[in-house]
Amino acid sequence: MKKAPICFIVNLFAVIVATAQTNEPDVRVTPSGVNNQLEVTIAANRQIPGSLVLGSNSGIVNPTPGYYQGQIGRFTSKDYGKTWQGSDEWYAGIDEGSGGDPSVAFDARGYAYVTGIKNKMKGYFITQSNDLGQTWTVPTMPYFGENFDKQMITIDDYPESPYKNKFYCAWYNWQSEKTWLHTSTDMLTFSPIQTLAAYRPDGIVVKTGPEGNAYVVYGYGNTFKFHKSVAGGSFSMPAKDIFTFNSPAFRPNGCDLGGGYSNGEHNFPSIAVDRSCGPYRSRIYIVFREAVAGKNVVKLIRSSNQGVNWSTSSITVSDPLISAYMSWITVDDATGDISIVYHSFDDPIDKCKLGVYVAYSTDGGQSFSSLKVSDQSFYLGPEPGFHHYIGIDAHGGKSYPTWSDKRFGNYQAFVSPVSFPSPQYYRSSTTLDVIGPLSINAFPRSVTYEAKYINIPSNNTAFSSSSGSKVNIKAVNSITLNPGVKLGIGAVVNVSIGAISACNTNASREESEDVSLATFEEEAKEKVKFYPNPFTDKISFEYFLKQASKVELKIVDLQGKLIGTIIDSELRNEGWQKAEFSNCEELKNGTYLYSLIVNGETKSGLILKSEREIEGDEGNYVKGKENVSSKSPAKK
Fold first, then answer.
1. Is the dihedral of CA 490, 496, 500, 501 positive or negative?
2. Phi-psi bin for 335: left (phi > 0), alpha (psi -120 to 50), beta?
3. Bridge partner list, 346
4. N or C end: fewer C-beta atoms under 10 angstroms in the chain?
5. How do residues 106-137 score in pLDDT, each as one tens digit?
6. Would you call 461 helix, strand, or coil by DSSP?
7. Is the pLDDT of residue 421 over 70?
């Protein structure tokens, strides 16, 4: 075994291959607003790029103690969040107004939905728009009952899901101390209520995956609970305990942030599922806050087999030396990239000022970089009413973080779009409409459309790109170009007919919740284990050989430069093998790649070098099939 004198990578909390991120100025959703806008939430339309819907808990404190008299704000944008239309008024016909907890979604037709609690916690309302917010239906009330709280909705808007347009709403009841959920296929009739738990959690979220699975997560005490449905709404029982965490500080930095910030949201998790055609398709992510060495730190856990197994330790997302709060997560369906929005106490002088940040990952949550997206830092609380979450959604290489701050005297909703340079993929086994305008001038990148039939409508679809960017359009049978399609100066558009690639489904196999020991052991044999990660002076690798094989194990930097050779084309016996990369004290901090080559097949993954090991970071298992390259040339 050959050992290199040094090894490599990453900052203490965020590492990623350098990317060009473009953050736009903060956009105030209602420039003339006078109502407080709290608990903001946002959704991106997967069917009509650039269209968004935002909900807010809008209103004032009712003179009657104990109630927040208000409405649910409904706002939409058709230009990627640059301008907004809408109102803080929910609907004049609703007596007593709304009690908060807005939740928003789009369905697979591009219809927008906004929900909110009826005031005095008497159930929830829902309203729909099929014209991007020009008009809204009269709100209906799918559920009426006392002590209703924390409802969250999602709609399966994945075009090829077997449960496309299925509606899910989860909530809990203060009086009965129960957690409930119901579903609908037509928004007219709703399923019987399913009791998920005989206790009251603090926050409950539901999301869907590309196979039509639905997932529910909530916090209870210091444990996250998880349910899964593979049948459009019949969820696994009882709840599965997936992670135990350290509760965040009651008053971070000693600052009075009000009821929602100080306690109500302390273990409110957020969940997202990768529905892209990328290597991490179907992976589930949960983000939350945890107390680490006196600071509130944003953490992440994940599952690569639809919730059967979860990472046993968490990945640090935010700077562990600065307290953070109010995190929410999304995954871009077109790229598979993760975006997490959170508050950070970033002012070096005033410890109670916060900024808004977006943490971004292109490698399935292995590493993150963070970008401040708010134009300024600000104070929060003590606020009127309640404030339990902020929001983010992403699609087509853009993420849309939203939050509330008091820079204009009262709480107002803001959005600050962020663009990333990752390649985008849109695929369908049937028909795909390419809807524009599509501009990729901001940075070099590629956009690929693949389907059996592709239709480019006559709606003045325009393609323009800068040098190095391109649009790829490929269909199995036919591509229809309608009048009105335009190509901008410098556009590089490749159009072809032929076989198309399928979504990567390595990480989306359906498995039983009751995993046998033999099954678990077989899964482990397909993976490379490396630990600790990050490492300081040495890192160990464990891998399984099905037969005696020639093995190479090397470490390179992100530019492909060889850092060290651990095993140089040496014969290894069948069974479990272990290798060590040591003497790494002088290796520069940063991110590196290991490359394990067995009989010409390569497995690779990111490893992190830091000055000290970070408590709680994941000693990751990297699934070999997710990182298998094509056969490499035989070594001479």
1. negative
2. alpha
3. none
4. C
5. 999 999 999 988 766 677 889 999 999 999 99
6. coil
7. yes
Per this entry, what is the length of the chain?
636
Measuring CA to CA, which residue among 505, 512, 519 is closest to residue 230? 512
Q: Quote the CA–CA distance of 311 and 629 in Å, as a whole number.
A: 24
Kindly list the distances between the CA atom of residue 11 and the CA atoms of 263, 366, 590, 612, 615, in Å, as whole numbers in the listed order.
31, 13, 6, 10, 14
State how far Cα 375 lies from the chain centre: 23
CB 213 within 8 A of CB 308: no
SS3 112: strand
Q: Which one-letter DSSP state was computed for residue 535?
A: B
Dump the DSSP string for 478-535: EEEE-TT-EE-TT--EEEEES--PPPP-TT-----SS--HHHHHHHHHTEEEEESSSB
pLDDT band of residue 424 (cuts 50, 70, 90) is confident
How far, in Å, are 101, 138, 151, 405, 588 from residue 37 at the CA level?
Answer: 11, 22, 18, 9, 46
What's the whole-number average pLDDT of the chain?
77
| Count of CA atoms in the C-beta half-sphere (13 A) of 206 | 32
Q: What is the mean pLDDT of residues 512-530?
A: 50
Residue from 106, 87, 84, 82 nearest 35 by CA: 87
Rounded CA separation 357/324 (Å): 9
Query: In this structure, which amino acid lies at residue 163?
Result: Y
The pLDDT tens digits of the residues spanning 194-206 come to: 999 888 887 899 9
Residue 520: which H helix or E strand, with range? helix 517-525
Beta strand ranges found along 50-158 (DSSP E) = 52-61, 68-77, 85-87, 98-106, 112-118, 123-129, 140-144, 148-155
Here the tokens at position 493 are: 């558009």
Determine the average pLDDT of the residues in 352-370. Answer: 91
Q: Which two tokens stand for residue 446?
A: 């590629």
Strand arrangement, sheet containing 355-361: 324-331, 338-344, 355-361, 369-372
Neighbours of 493 (CB within 10 A): 16
